[in-house]
Write a structure and sequence with these properties.
- The chain is mainly alpha-helical and about 110 residues long.
- The chain has a single domain, classed as Winged helix-like DNA-binding domain superfamily/Winged helix DNA-binding domain (Arc Repressor Mutant, subunit A), CATH 1.10.10.
- The protein has five helices and two strands, in the order αααββαα.
- Strands 1-2 form a two-stranded antiparallel sheet.
- The radius of gyration is 24 Å and the shape is elongated.
- Pfam families: HTH_1.
- Belongs to the LysR transcriptional regulatory family.
- This is Transcriptional regulatory protein.
- One of its GO terms (molecular function) is DNA-binding transcription factor activity.
- One of its GO terms (cellular component) is protein-DNA complex.
Length: about 110
């Protein structure tokens, strides 16, 4: 199973293209970051990075996965904000029913108050 923490780690490595800098950005050490990426690759069933002694780069699978991971994290953040707004009463829906005759007199005034 892929976790949000793994997605955050993956995108930090994608953005930095360096494990050490990505680990610093995430306020963690490099070994746990490496384990997160390895677990993610295992869960996905594909190698996401090509690694050499000097550099890393995304594989084609990693590039496609990075795009989806960004969308997932953005949607997760949006879902959290939506739930918080609804819980705080800052957002919701209002259903209005009216007759045709009242729509000409009362409805414009009512909508103007909103």
């Amino acid at each position: 199973m892929v976790t949000l923490a793994q997605l955050r780690c993956f995108l930090a490595v994608v953005d930095e293209m360096n494990y050490r800098r990505a680990a610093e950005r995430l306020n963690m050490t490099q070994p746990p970051l490496t384990r997160q990426i390895q677990a993610l690759e295992h869960a996905v069933g594909a190698q996401l990075f090509d690694r050499s002694a000097r550099a890393i780069r995304l594989t084609p699978a990693g590039g496609a996965f990075a795009q989806s991971a960004r969308r997932i994290l953005a949607q997760t953040g949006s879902a959290v904000l939506d739930a918080q707004r609804i819980a705080a009463g800052d957002t919701g829906s209002l259903t209005i029913a009216f007759t045709v005759a009242s729509s000409y007199v009362f409805l414009p005034r009512f909508v103007a108050l909103l």
